[in-house]
Amino acid sequence: MANHRPVIIGGSNSVTLAKRVARAAHGEFIALKVSRFPDGETLVRISKKLQGRAVVIVNSTYPNANDALMEVALAVDAAKRGGALSVTAVLPYLAYMRQDTVFNPGEPLSASVMARVLNDADRVIAVDPHLHRIRRLSDVFKARAESTTANAVLAEYIRSHYRTAVVVGPDAESFQWARTIADRIGLKATILRKTRFSARRVVVRLAGAVVVKGHDVVIVDDMVSTGHTVAEAAKLAKRLGARKVHCVCVHGLFLGDAVRLLKRAGIRDIVSTNTVPGPFARIDVSSLIAEAVYQ
Ligand code: R5P
């Protein structure tokens, strides 16, 4: 008898999340076997018969973006050769999306190269990919590619923890998240204008009209990487008279001393989703991934 339960395969960055997705999707979880050759090449193995099964491979591309992408590409190939009915690659955090244009002469369009690595999948799903100059994933992927958003779970977290706060988007790119989330739960949102001089030098100023003085503030961003954007936003909010300042983001990379930077800037709570695992990953996205898989 045909088995209609999807096989959910967890890559090395997303074993825990993939188990949760399997539960939410009523699927069967297995961990991808990943090993390295002495020269650093990756080998993957799927220890299950996949003939006629729908297969979903879940792997975030942080840490080790390049290895993680290769792992997914190899797993897609292995699943297809194993006779899978369909192969969906889920990248809860999808790297290379900020390199969405040729910034300087002689540089590649990295987002499109990343897409080519994954194009053998029948379908690609990412949670809140950094869509800025590229408006839709389908603009870079040949495979069917869709994004799903953590807005609903972020909004619910903010509503239940910071119900009177002002939501701040620290730059034009993040304001799409801040505004949508604030609107969902009836909070005010304002935007800052960011100038980035380098990875670690960021200046922000107020661009929106909403008053933060005397209010708690929640800074919402799609990702926290070095932490400089959110730290500068927090310092500005404090200078403008905000009371407590918190940070809620989708992808919490928190590179290097990012957490210390955020704390020094006066941020009380730091919260992210579990697209990237870590101590601040308190908002679960497994159900929304399961829903996206079934759409
Ligand atoms: C930028 O466009 C994104 O929305 C984030 O604001 C940015 O990637 C955060 O980077 P960092 O934490 O290094 O300032």
Account of the 3D structure:
- The chain has 295 residues and is an alpha/beta fold.
- The chain folds into 2 domains: 7-149 and 284-294, Rossmann fold, CATH 3.40.50; 151-274, Rossmann fold.
- Helix content is 30%, strand content 28%.
- It has 8 helices and 15 strands.
- The chain has helices spanning 15-24, 65-81, 110-118, 151-161, 172-185, 228-239, 258-264, 286-294, and strands at 7-10, 28-31, 33-36, 42-45, 54-58, 86-91, 123-127, 144-148, 166-169, 189-198, 201-206, 217-224, 245-252, 267-273, 281-283.
- The strands form 3 sheets. The chain has a 7-stranded mixed beta sheet with strand order 11-10-9-12-13-14-15, with helices on both faces.
- Strand 10 and strand 11 (201-206) form a beta hairpin.
- Helix 1 (15-24) crosses helix 8 (286-294).
- The radius of gyration is 20 Å and the shape is globular.
- The model has no long low-confidence stretch (mean pLDDT 95).
- The chain binds ribose-5-phosphate (R5P).
- Residues 170-171, 173-174, 202, 221-229 line the site of ribose-5-phosphate (R5P).
Short overview:
The chain has 295 residues and is α/β, with parallel strands linked by helices.
Separate helix tally: 8
Give the proportion of residues in helices. Answer: 25-40%
Q: What is the CATH architecture term of the largest domain? A: 3-Layer(aba) Sandwich
Average pLDDT rating? 95
Please write the string of helix (H) and strand (E) elements. Answer: EHEEEEHEHEEHEHEEEHEHEEH
Assign an overall shape: globular
CATH class of the largest domain: Alpha Beta
